[in-house]
Amino acid sequence: MLVYPKIDPIAFSIGPLSVHWYGITYLVAFILFMLLGRWHIRRRPDLAWTPQQLDDLLFYGVLGVILGGRLGEVLFYQPGYYFSHPAEIIAVWKGGMSFHGGFLGVLAAMWFWGRRHGKGFWEVTDFIAPLVPTGLAAGRVGNFINGELWGRVASADLPWAMVFPHVDPLPRHPSQFYQMAGEGLLLFAILWWYSRKPRPLRATSAVFLIGYGVLRFAAEFFRTPDPGIFTWITPDITTAQWLCVPMVVIGIVLLVKAQPDPAR
């Protein structure tokens, strides 16, 4: 059985400025996006993207991730707490970023960027879909360092079961690493392989929606459920799982519609 190593959330300080590990993982996510994006441009010249467009797109994406992720945490998971403590809404360095909120924020940012630069919405989302999962993986490392989003109680016989002393003395699934491996590394491998050659418009975006939705839905069975706005429906299905259902449904519809017409 493993024991969670208490990690100082502050990586280092320079005078009065403290740099948090959580912020560093976001920086790593953005750097990976840039590196993989340039690689993707080189291997798929038919996409007609430039490094300059990628740089500009990242700026919009960062705003979408941070604003959408935080608003999603506030509105989907803990509205009562944050409305009672409004000053905490801006304390993003303490953790608390909703993927589904960040996802919606990025979609809005990509739509706005596409309108300004003459690229269609699905053209943009198909391009960025393979670049996103490694950032999700980096974020889960940040969750582990912060000692948050721990897993459900596990059998003491599970070799990698971990005790989080700041929670209780029970062995738990290190669900942060499950999600890092699933919706991070595995989803990246699937999308990177799938996008290696031309696909119908919307198809790559559809695979992302289906893949993330399924993998996150599965991971929730090992993660301690977060309180959320849908917990009143059933205690057996978490808020995140409810939010994943429309992702999968929309992804399936998009994938079907994206297939080339066999009659042509």
Automatic annotation (TrEMBL):
Keyword Mitochondrion tagged: no
Residues noted as binding a 1,2-diacyl-sn-glycero-3-phospho-(1'-sn-glycerol) in the record, renumbered to the chain: R140
One GO process term, biological-process aspect: lipoprotein biosynthetic process
EC number: 2.5.1.145
Gene Ontology CC, one term: plasma membrane
UniProt KW keywords: Cell membrane, Lipoprotein, Membrane, Transferase, Transmembrane, Transmembrane helix
Keyword Transmembrane helix: yes
InterPro entries, alphabetized: Lgt
Subcellular location: Cell membrane
Pathway: Protein modification; lipoprotein biosynthesis (diacylglyceryl transfer)
Membrane topology recorded in Swiss-Prot or TrEMBL: Multi-pass membrane protein
GO MF term list: phosphatidylglycerol-prolipoprotein diacylglyceryl transferase activity
Regions crossing the membrane: 20-37, 57-77, 97-114, 201-219, 239-256
Pfam families in alphabetical order: LGT (PF01790)
HAMAP family assigned: Lgt
Family: Belongs to the Lgt family.
The protein's role, per its UniProt record: Catalyzes the transfer of the diacylglyceryl group from phosphatidylglycerol to the sulfhydryl group of the N-terminal cysteine of a prolipoprotein, the first step in the formation of mature lipoproteins.
Protein's recorded name: Phosphatidylglycerol--prolipoprotein diacylglyceryl transferase
The species this protein was found in: Nitrogeniibacter mangrovi
Taxonomic lineage from the root: Bacteria, Pseudomonadati, Pseudomonadota, Betaproteobacteria, Rhodocyclales
